[in-house]
Structure prediction request, 1069 residues.
Amino acid sequence: MKNKIDKKLKKNFRLLLLTSILSGVSGTGFAATITCTPEADGSYLPGNVIPSCNTVSAATITQPSTAGFYILTRSRLYETLIVGNTDVTANVTGGYGGIGNQYAMGAAGASIVTGNVKFTVTASNGNVNGLGSHSNVNMTTKDVILDLTYHYPTGNSSNGGSIYGVLAGSTVDSGELATYNGKYTTITTNALNITQTATGGTINAILNNGIRAIQGANQDSGKGSAGQVIVNGILDMKLTGNRSIGIYVSGNSTNTGVATAAGTNGSLTPKVILNSNATIIINKGTDTPGFFSQTWDSHGIKLGKVRYAGEGPGILESHGNLVIDTTNALQGGGIKMMRNSILDASYTTASTKITTNGYALEIGGHDDAAKNGLALNFEQAASHGLTASFNNAVFTTNGTSIDPLITATGARKDLIFVDQGQSGAKLNFTGANTNLTANTNGYILNVSGNYTASNYTYYSNTYDAAGAELLGQGLFEGSSVTFNATDAGSMTGLVYKGLVKKSQTLTTATTPTLNLNLSNGFTWNLNSNAAAPNADTTTAFFDTTTISNGAVINGAYSDAGGNNYILLGNVISDAGIINLDNATHAKYNDVLTINGNYTGSNGALVKMNTLWNAPGDTEITVAEGGADSESDVLHITGTADGTTTVNPIASNGTNYVLDGSVQQLTKIINTVPVIIVDTTNAAGTFVGTAQTTGATEVQLTSRIAANGGREYYWTMAAMPIVDPVDPVDPVTPTPIYNPSVPGYVETPRVDMELGYATLRTLHERRGENQTLAWDECGDCGLEAKGQVWARIFGSHLEQDGKTRFGMDTDIYGIQAGYDFTVKRNEKDGHRLTGLYFAYGRANTDFSDKYRAVNGIISDDKYTGNGKTDAYSLGITNTYYKSNGTYLDLVGQASFLQNKYDSRSNVTANNNGFGLILSAEVGRPYAINDHKPGETGWLIEPQAQLIYQYLKLDKFSDGTRNIDQNSQSGLRGRIGFRIARNSEAKNYQTNTFYGVANVWHDFLNPKEVNIGQDGLKETYASTWGEIGLGIQFPLAKELYLYSDARYERSFGGADRDGYRGTLGLKYTWK
Prediction:
């Protein structure tokens, strides 16, 4: 055969060379247009004679019933055949081909280019082809419409009958051998519309195939060009028939590696490329199979073939929106892949929607069977590295299809089925719109165990040294599947591995492997399989599932609660989420069991709902605890490692909040366990901090369970770290407070300290105003008209509460005033009356000496910070007698703005106001005799009483309501000042003094209400103070004054601080 073809090729090339010389054209082909003449039935045979015609004119014709084709290119076509717009109608009694290649060869320069093409064909008693080519004769078309009907007469065998819309590659009849290895035969269309109907026959249903790309079918040699079909426009395909395949791609049988590699003889794998949107609809035929007939599967796409005439893998690329609907097929599924095929629909422009009555995606399985008498012989092939990739895939099945050849196996209700022997299979899903929803009686993904069954021939996909494929089920490896899903899509249902169908016998020597990798927000909704084997309706079977970067295993898919699922495999959470929080929250009875090992890292989360009502529990000494609480539970039967945060979700969807009315005060209480690990486990594997609507914070801690494992539960108890070498006596646990609580409780104290700092004492605020009497020999005050003054002030104050809270406050501000009246009286005294304005800021760090982490008191006491801004207006009236006695009366009103920021990132703010009334009195006494204007020392006893009222707005931080109530303070001072006044130039005075005071707070703070809890903190009530001050003139009537002081509580450092001020004042006349 090969020698005949070679002789024919040589003869054709000699004729081509001779014709070129005769026409005066050398090496450039035929430039002249030669219009083809139709045969009597309207058909054309370009390349039938030399010189060949090269142009078929545009035509709209109806061919007679005897016609067998429209255009067939033959061996003497050595250039491009141009076909004008074509519209052909043919109703024929035999087979029919539209535009096809018969003997032309691409190596000789033949190719076909057409305009728009439309074929409307009805045929019987023969195969039907729309467009077809082989031997590297490429065909390029514009828009194509194929309306093909093949009715095989009842009573005829129909064995081998077929209808192809587009057929490319080395087919059975192509005559191709090794000459075309490593080459493609490509048919490229713009828009492609295929409508095909096949009926009739008594043995085998007619193969109704829309697009077929094939390689190696001629003489089953595995040689020849690989078919390639490229659809650049929209593909719209509708096939009707009981054995229909929308797109069928297979070949390259000598390829023992990945599908993209060349075969051992250099052959290529055929492929189909869909560059735009595509719709494939498969409908069952109208005829009912007879007694001797076989019912075949139908698929939207089939890649790969087990044996004979085009065996090997196939490749398909989909760049647009691919829609497959086989719900009305007689039997079958969406996509079937065999051998080492590759399907890539993962491009960013791509999406895939499969609606079917069988498997949406089937990997492996048996291929077409042949009858041997009344028995069926099945063919099954293993694969290595088969890959299917999808972007924005939506798969659904109604599960009504059965295997038409092995009916005992039952309905195909699984969404994705992987048969035995499929090693290294990869299923990849990307896109936020991915939605894989299992049938209620099936699995999302079912990976079969290895099995034996009657009448099977097993092709192992392994090869001997000569390249021959080895046969035998014992050579089949266990299927190993890696399922990768990324982006914010979802799948709903369960997965399974190791199941075999009813008519098959499980081989226990090999086991399948299933690993799932979910990432970037992908969600796995666990939903039961009502028809699961062994009544495992809520169990998912796999080896390892890894969730990363926000991917979710959702164990609370049913919003009604009561979900109870088992993950039979290991789970790794790398910043993933295990979710037991129902969509509308407030369900406390969901359970997820990991029947395997668990590892959490990089912010891994467990979300759940927990309810905890008052009174909460018995005492902490009761080991089991948990009265009045209920919760979702994560149960791990294996080991648990790493660190995972538990996040309770409130009924309103707020994170890290426990529902319920539990409150702390009389008892320290715990919940029921929320995480259970059956094996030995290090404390701290699961951590968490949650809020109640009250003051308490609950933390996740743990204890050793009766079985030696560990139970994690929520507690309000802060326990000290126990030294195992030198344990101390048992310590009564203290309640854990939310990090926001110290700020809420102590801010009223901060606000009052800011008010006191703005007011301060007379000498801090105004300096030494007796200079009005001393300057200019005591006469300046007679002419004084007014005084303006300003100062800046700052302080640092640390206060440790007597119970547990502390604060570290920095205060700074600016103050300016004006005495609009300076009056002398008849007894040589004077009075200053005026106003001042002030702005003050307090920055505070709050602390809790019992702050806990995982229920253990921490060395880090910091809980958060607060900021207060105060805007104040004051009225002053100061009386001075001639002997130096003074009475200073002050009223001050402040507008306050508070901001809270806890270390747990809870923020809040509120406003309020403060009112202050102060009365200060002092009387200087000369220590040594001196005349006016001379240097002298004096001692001045002083006393001061300050009342402050504070009212802050109620507010909420999103979890709890806070009412700081109205607060009152009454602060008193007694002390003395020792001063030295000396003469300065221009009859002015320099003043230097020291002070010593004792301060006392007569009132304790009131409670602050935080949710249902009322808390307060008390502080040191008595402290001492020492300080120094100075005042000196800068110019006539202009003074600079400053004061610095240190304070400390008596008997300890409960109150410790320092402050200072710097001011200027000017008196004019």
Q: What stands out?
A: The first strand starts at residue 55 and ends at 56. Residues 10 and 16 are 10 Å apart (CA to CA). The longest helix spans residues 2-22.
